[in-house]
Amino acid sequence: MAAVTIYDTTLRDGTQGTGISFSTLDKIRVAERLDRFGVHYIEGGWPGSNPKDAAFFEEAAKREWSHARIAAFGMTRRGKVRVQEDAQVQMLLDAKSPTVTVVGKTWALHVTEVFNVSLEENLAMISDTVAYLKEQGREVLYDAEHFFDSYQDDPEYSMKTVEAAWKAGADMIVLCETNGGALPDFVGEVTGRVVSELGCPVGIHTHNDGGLGVANALAAVRAGASQVQGTMNGYG
Description:
- It contains nine helices and eight strands.
- The two termini are about 30 Å apart.
- α1 (about 25-35) packs across α2 (about 50-60) and α6 packs across α7 (about 155-165).
- The protein is α/β, with parallel strands linked by helices.
- The protein has one domain: Aldolase class I (TIM Barrel, Alpha-Beta Barrel).
- The protein has an eight-stranded parallel beta barrel, surrounded by eight helices.
């Protein structure tokens, strides 16, 4: 079993929980404690989404971190927009974090009904964004949103999305069990296929709606995942 890195997303995913709101100073204090714990990655938030996240990245860039790499979170470029002209992608670069985590659509239903773009355009959105951020010198983690639901619906298109990110230069593919309803055997089976067919570093991001977040993460690690994403105390 490969060594497993820990990616903490308390400061972004954790804030989606009811009654949880961090000030910029709170975020810095939490990040400093996580760094002392030896956490490998700290996701600071979504640059440009709110002033607190923007201020966090400004402060984080001034500090030297002992263990952790600070990560900015954002989406792929918009449909039919050049990646160099996408304001949200530029905000990821402006955050000056060494690592950028990009989330993209995996489920065909979301591609056509939410993004209102073709399946092929979605693949281009993924590859363009990853390649551009790599060209700018960032470590890029690709979050495959709703990957396990998508895989149940259309396994081949799901695989095409993560393959697009990997071929574009992503440093890791993170499989997201976004609905929190998958079972460990299925998570392990699907993770194993991605590890085997792509031959790339794979991470796992599980939600706990069904009480199986930890079990699903462990199943993914047994199948070859080498990063686990999560929040402190199950926040979010």
